[in-house]
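hi! just following up on the protien thing from before. the input was this:
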Amino acid sequence: MIFVTVGSQKFPFNRLLKKVDQMVQEGAITEEVLIQTGASDYTPSHCRYQPFYNRALFSEMLGSCTVLITHGGTGTIIDAVKRGKKTIVVPRLSRYGEHVDDHQLELPARFHDMNLVYTCPDVDLLPEILPVVRNHQFDTYQSNTETFLASVDDVLRSYLPETVTDTAVLP
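and the predicted 3d structure came back as:
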C-alpha cells in the first residue's frame, strides 16, 4: 500500500493529489493508495482518501505502507525515516499557494543528501521516481541524540578515578 499525506496545513496540495490519482488511473500505480488530503479541495477518483486520520490510524498506515509519499513536513519525514520507510518527499511550494514560503525544500534536501529519503520537487517526475525508490537501498537513520549521549557517557567515564573497577553499576 502507498500512503500519501499532505499534512495539516490550511493550504491545499492539489498538485500532488492530482498526480497520484492520475498515476493510478493510468496504471503507473497498481497497488492500493490511501491519501490524507488535508485542506485540499481536489477529490481523488481512483484512491481511498479522507481529509485527516487520527493519530493511531495515521501511525498504523505509516507502519504498513510500502512507500510513503509526503509533503516536506519535519515530523512526518522523521517518523518515516525512523521506521525505515521508503519515502518520497514532495515539498509544498509557495508559487502554487501550497505554503507561505519554500522552507519545505531545505530539510528534504538534507535528508536526500543523507540517503534517507528521495526528494521530488516536480510532481511530473513522480512516475519516474516511484520505481527508483521501490528498488533503492536507503541508509538507516541514526539519531543524533544517541550519538550525543554516547559522547557524554565517554566524557563522564573519563573523569572516573582509575581505581574504579566495578562499572557494572554504571548505566
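The beta strands are 2-5, 33-36, 48-50, 67-70, 86-89, 118-119.
The longest helix spans residues 144-158.
cheers
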